[in-house]
Amino acid sequence: MKYIDEFRDGALAADIARAIAAAVEPERTYRFMEFCGGHTHAIARYGLPDLLPANVRMIHGPGCPVCVLPIGRIDMAIELALEHHAIVCTYADTLRVPASGGLTLLRARAQGGDIRMVYSVDDALRTAREHPDREVVFFAIGFETTTPPTAVALLQAAAEDLANFSVLCCHVLTPAAIAAILDAPAREAPTGVPLDGFVGPAHVSTVIGSDPYAAFAGAYRKPVVIAGFEPLDVMQAILMLVRQVNSGRAEVENEFTRAVTPAGNRKAQQLMDQVFELRPSFEWRGLGEIPRSALRIRERYARFDAERRYPLAYRTIADNRACECGPILRGLKRPIDCKLFGSVCTPETPMGSCMVSSEGACAAHYTYGRHKDTVEGAA
Amino acid sequence: MSRQVKPGYARALDIRRGRVDLSHGGGGRAMVQLIRELFARHLGNAYLEQGNDGTVLPPLPGRLVVTTDSHVVSPLFFPGGDIGCLAVHGTVNDLAVMGARPLWLTAGFILEEGFPLADLDRIAASMARACREAGVQLVAGDTKVVERGKGDGVFITTSGIGVVAESCTLSGAAARPGDAVLLSGTLGDHGMAIMSQRENLGFDTPIHSDTAALNGLTALMMQHADGAIRLMRDPTRGGLAATLNEIADQSGVGVLLDETMIPLRPEVEAACELLGLDPLNVANEGKLVAVCDAALAPTLVQRMRTHPLGREAARIGTVIADSHHFVQMQTRLGGRRMVDWLSGEQLPRIC
Question: Do both A155 and A295 map to the same domain?
Answer without folding.
Answer: yes
